[in-house]
Each structure stands twice: as structure tokens, then as C-alpha cells.
UniProtKB/TrEMBL annotation:
This is Uncharacterized protein. Residues 226-243 have a biased composition (Basic and acidic residues). Residues 1-22 form the signal peptide. Keywords: Signal. Residues 218-280 are annotated as: Disordered. InterPro entries: YOR389W-like. Residues 259-269 have a biased composition (Pro residues). PANTHER family: ENTEROTOXIN (PTHR35204:SF1), YALI0A21131P (PTHR35204). It comes from the Eukaryota. The lineage of its organism: Eukaryota, Fungi, Dikarya, Basidiomycota, Agaricomycotina. It comes from Sistotremastrum niveocremeum HHB9708.
Amino acid sequence: MKASILALVFNALGHHAGSVLTASTQHVLQSPSSYFAEDTWSLPPSVNSTANHIFSSVDSLLKHWPNTIYRNGHAFVVGTVPSGTVLYHGRAAEIPPYTPEWLAFDFEHSFMFSSWGKTAWMVTYVVDTPLKIGYYDGNSAAKLPEGSMDVQDLLTWGVAEANNTWKEWERIVDMCEWGEPLGLHGFVRMEVSFELMLCDFSQNVRIISHSELIPSNFTMPRRPRRNDTEEPDHLNLETETEYHLSSLGDPKPDKPGKRPMPPPGPFPPDSRDPPKGWRGTLRNFESVSIEALRAGSWHSLFAESRVHLDLTRYVTLFDPEYSSLFSTRINQTRTTMRGGDASVEDVARFRADVEDAVTRPNNITASGVDWQDLARAIVERFGDRLDHLNYTLSLIDTTIDERIIAARVRTQVLTLLAPYLLTSALPFNTSYPDIDITWAKPIHEKCSQTLIPDYPDTSFLPNESVLRDSFLGVTSEICRVVTLIWTGALDVESQAKFVVVQNLQKWRTYTKDLLDWLGWAHLIRCKPACEDDAFCYVPTWSVQRDLSDMTPRCMHRDDPWDTLPLDL
């Protein structure tokens, strides 16, 4: 299937895409000067702008919370897993893996998979030589037909189809075949936590521990399949061979493209026999699964540090170069947008751009900008203040006097814009500074540009130019909204009450629309905050399969499913 689909992709272009469509052909999002033109600086971004999505993707790389909320990733990034990194492989069988397999960065994640059988084996590895990897953003290990696996399937097979969702064994084998000539040793994805798909266990890693552990009593409810895109029924492993379980791996498959399966029987086993000398109960499904989830949440605020990404080799389907996706995003939200909707031509172009990014010589000089650090600086500067501003404006319909609310808004905007309020940027001799707003343009320009590297265009690699212009698009929109609020808030203390009320309503809409456009995941949280014995949770693959309602809610640490039924 892979060869025929990719042939179709490249033939549709009329030539081999990789020979002509290099990363250097990628277009920038928007000319930086256009953000500050006299007649357009106060206008909102184009409906086709993806600056917000690219920025959010970069800020969210290797973070659990945002990639759980925005499952459908669009980006591929080249990176390394450094020497000294410890990796875990849990399985029911004693023999270590020797074909492509899945490894976890956290023991708790891997232990889930050693819990599927009657015995629990844990093989622990250390990386001796750095692994060159490709990272897929989003919840890219979630076996869902709605788009979470699109990017890897486009790169591996040239197409993203729902009936491929559960073909994990075929996926890892074909992905490794694609990556081998590019020098890739494996791929990193996020499931309940982050995992490494390692292609070859004979090099770069070695076993440092191979132990049989106390098993868990990992039984769970069964349910009928809702449709053909879901995982095969657990009860008949003899005939269902497309289910991804890292606990399985020997002997070798007897049929090409199929994973070896355990002896027939109920899955998971209905009960475990604890080892001789064991006393008391074994850990149950709730305990094992919730600890895997909590391990993933360790990487919610700070990115998974055991993977080092090279953002000069970041390629995303949100790049406007892939213009076939513009029309598919109409009436879609960030959670429903799919990379798999790209045209045949754009898929070929994307694949060529990714291969160019992977194979680009190391001696080509980049700008030196740390794009993830820059994204964090922008979020830290504006995020909490915009959230606070939104909260203050939400008080309009309460008993608090509108003048008091307006005064608070004025102080907050004044504080936010303080580094950019020039003595020369004041209104002309007019009573209406929010009507003729040309005086505020220098404030917007300084606010937008201060944090963005002011280097010549030639300093940036083509992939970096996409990042630079996306970041500028985000700061420009933030500063546009805040500057417009400032033009009305400057003299709000002397305005008539009906004008104050009108302004507050307008500012509330401005701020809410801005936050919706930004979509910063760290501002999506449990309100009110959870008690000490609970943590904030959104439905997460694979501990929960019903992901239709992503409203954050508090989950008790010791009894997680008491108020949140598990839909398996």
C-alpha cells in the first residue's frame, strides 16, 4: 500500500517532489512591514492566518497538557535523545524485544503495558549514543480516527485513512523503513505520556536491567466496538492482530506486517496469581492507569527534557505554503483541524520539506534564536495579564460599579503597555483619542516588535522565517487589541457612564476574541482550582476513550473514577 500511494502522490506533481521542492520554497506567513502599515495595523488578522497555531504548537512542543487538549498535531520536528537517557519497555514476555518496538520515558507509562499479562517484565535501557529522532506534535499516539495520527501516516504512507488507525505494527515498521535512509533512529510521540518508537535495538542502546516485577491486577470492563475504526475486541487475540500492545513481541511474526500474538484467552487476564510470599492485594487498574497519567502530567508545565528538539528543522502543515488546507479549516476549531485534509500535491511537498529538514547538513548556520524560549517569554509576558484582564471584564454584569471596573481595566492595560508608552505617542488635540487612533500606532509597533529578533532576513533559515513571522503575527495581534483598548481607556476616568458601559462591552468582546484566537492551553484549567487530594484533568488517551467533552474537571488522586466513569 505504501509504495503505490507514494507513487500516486509524486506522479501527481509530475516529478519527484524531493528533487525540487526544498525547504527554501516555503513562503513566509506575512511581510513584517504589513503588520504596521498606516491603514491596516488596527485590523484583525486574515481568516487564513495560522500564526496563532504555529506559535501555540512551538510553545507546546513536548508538553503534556496542551497536546492532550489539541490532539491533532500538524508538525514534525527533528531532535535527539541524548546519551544517558533511561528508557523502559514493559511486557508480559521474558524475552527482550529485537524488532521495532515502543519504549517509555517514564516507568509508570511502561508498567501499564507490563500489566497486560499474567507476568510483568520490565526491560530497562540506557542510550549510549545519541538517537536522532523525529517528533510528532499533538497526542500523536492516540489511536483515534479523527486526525491525531495524520502527520505520521502522511509521511509514512502518503495518506491518512481511518481504517489505518489501529495498524500500529505496520505503522512502526513502515515508518522505520522511511526514516532509515534519512538517518533517523526512531520517533517520539505522546500517548498517556511520551514514548519512543525505536527502530533498531542492536545499536545505540543497551540493557541495564531485565527484571520480573510484582504484577498488577489489571482487569477492566469490556464494551462492544462502536465502529470499525476502533480497536479490535479484546476477547479474541488469535484473530485480531492489529492491536498495539508494547507488552507483546516474541516470537517473530509468522506473517509479514503482523505482530506476534499471545496464546488465545481473555484479555486482559481475568485475574493474576501473585508470586509466592506475596501478601495482600495487587494494584488495580485504577492505580496503574492513574499513575501513568500523572507521570504524563509531570511534563505539562515544563517540556519533556529528555528529548532535545532542533526548531530550525521544524516543519508544519500550518505553514500557509500548504494552501489546500485553507478551505478545509473553514468552520473548524483548532481541535478538529486535520493535516490529513491536505491535497495530494501538498502532501508530497510536505514530505519533501520534512526530508530536507532531516537531511540538511549540520554546517549550515542558523540564526541562533532559541524559539521555544522565545515562545515562553512571550507567553509569560502576556498570558496571565490577558487572563486577568478577561476576568476583570467578566465582572461587567455583576454588582460592581462599571466605573470601578473601567478603572481596573485602565490600570491593567497601562501596566501591560508600560514598556512601550512613549512620551511622543499621545493623542493630538482632540477630545476623542479612540476615534483618530493614529497617535497609538507607535505603541502598537514597539509592543509588537520588541521581543522579536531584529535580524536581517538572511540570518534565518527558511524554516526559521516561518517561525519568526508567526511569532510576530501573534505579538502584533496581542498588541493591536491591547492598544485599541488603551485608546479608549486613556481618558475613561472622565467619560460619561453610558460611554464607559459601551467601552466595557466592546473591550470584553475584544479580549475574549483575542484569547479564543490565541488558544493558549495553559489558560484552559479547572476553575475553581482543585483541592489538595485532586488534580486537574481532561479526558486523556489511553486511560479514557470518550474524548468528546474536553472540559477540565478535578479528579481525585486515590479514587479517580468515582465521579468520572471510564469509557473503555
